[in-house]
Amino acid sequence: MAAVLLAAGCSDEPQTRPGTQLPPVVKLEMVAVAGEGFVQEEEVVGTVRPVLRAMVEARVPGRIEELRVVVGQVVRKGETLAVLDAREIRARLDSANAVLEQSVKDLERITRLVRDGAATASELDAVQARQAVAVAAAAEAATLLDQTRIAAPFDGVVTRKLADVGDLATPGRGLFEVEDPARLRFETDLSEALLPRIRPGAAFPVRVGDRSDPIRATVVEVSPVSDPVSCSFRVKFDLPAGEGLRSGQFGRVLVPTGGESVLHVPTTAVLRRGQLEFVQVVADGAVRLRLVRTGRLAGGRVELVAGIRPGERVAAVANGQWADGQSVEGAR
What we know:
Layout: H1 2-10, E1 30-32, E2 34-50, E3 53-57, E4 62-67, E5 74-75, E6 80-84, H2 87-116, H3 121-146, E7 149-151, E8 156-161, E9 168-169, E10 174-179, E11 184-190, E12 203-208, E13 215-222, E14 233-238, E15 250-266, E16 271-273, E17 276-283, E18 286-298, E19 301-306, E20 313-315
Helix pairs in contact: 2-3
C-alpha cells in the first residue's frame, strides 16, 4: 500500500478525485494522420579528397642542398620548394658551352675556306654536324641544371615533407606532397546494387564531419570497373567551394534506394515516458493517450509504425498535463 501511494504521489499526470470534472482542453491544434511518401536512403561512407594532389619528385639525382618550404605553407605554381647540389651538372654545362664555342669558330673558319676554294663541301657538312651536336649537348646540360631547382606544380599547400637537407634525391622518390585545398571532392565506393542509381551530373546530399546540414555534391566520375577485392565501384562527387571542408574528412553520401507510403506526424506530437511512446488521439470530443511505436525521422516528422490508423486525429503538440479522457472544447 505504501509503494502504491508513493508511486501515485510521484506521478506527473493530473490526479482527479472521483466525480471531479476537469475543465475542457482549449486551443488544441490537431493534425490528421495520413500516409505520406518516404524515400528510403542508404548511407555510404567516404572521404573528402582534393581534386589536385601531386607527389613532387626530383627529375635528376642529387644531394638536397636547401629546403625552402615547411608543411602547411601555401605555395604558388613555379615557386622553388628545394634546391639540389648542382656542381656536377654545372661543370657539364661549362664543358658543353666550351665545345659549342669552339664549334662556332670552326664553322666560321671552314666557311671562309670553302668560299676561297680551300675546303670541300663535305668538310663544311662535318663541321656543321659537330656544331649541331654541341648545341644539343649545351641545351641538355642547361635543362638538367634547371631541374636541380624543384618547383611547385600548381597553386596549393604543402601537406607532407618526406626528405631533409643532406638526403639524396632520386627520380621516383617523393620529396613533398602538394594539394589544392580550394577544389575538393568526396570519394566513396558503391556496391553494384547502388550503381544503377548513380549517373554523372546528378546531385546527392553528403554529410561531412559533424555538420548537421547536408551538402549537395555532383557526380563527376564513375569508375567503369570494380575493385577486384571489394567488388565495389569508385564514385567521385564534386563539392561546392566555400564550405569550410578539409581534405581527409570523413563523410557519408545518402543514396536513395526506393520509396514507400508511411504514416507520419510531427515529432512534437509524440509524448515519451521512459522507453514508451504515446500520442494523444482526439476522438468523441475527448483526448485519449495511445501507445505507439515510432520509426524513422525525416524533416521534423516521425514515422508511426504501429498503434495508429490513417485518418485519426492527434494533438500536434503533446501535453503531459492533460488527463486521459479529458474533454476537448470544439472537438467532435
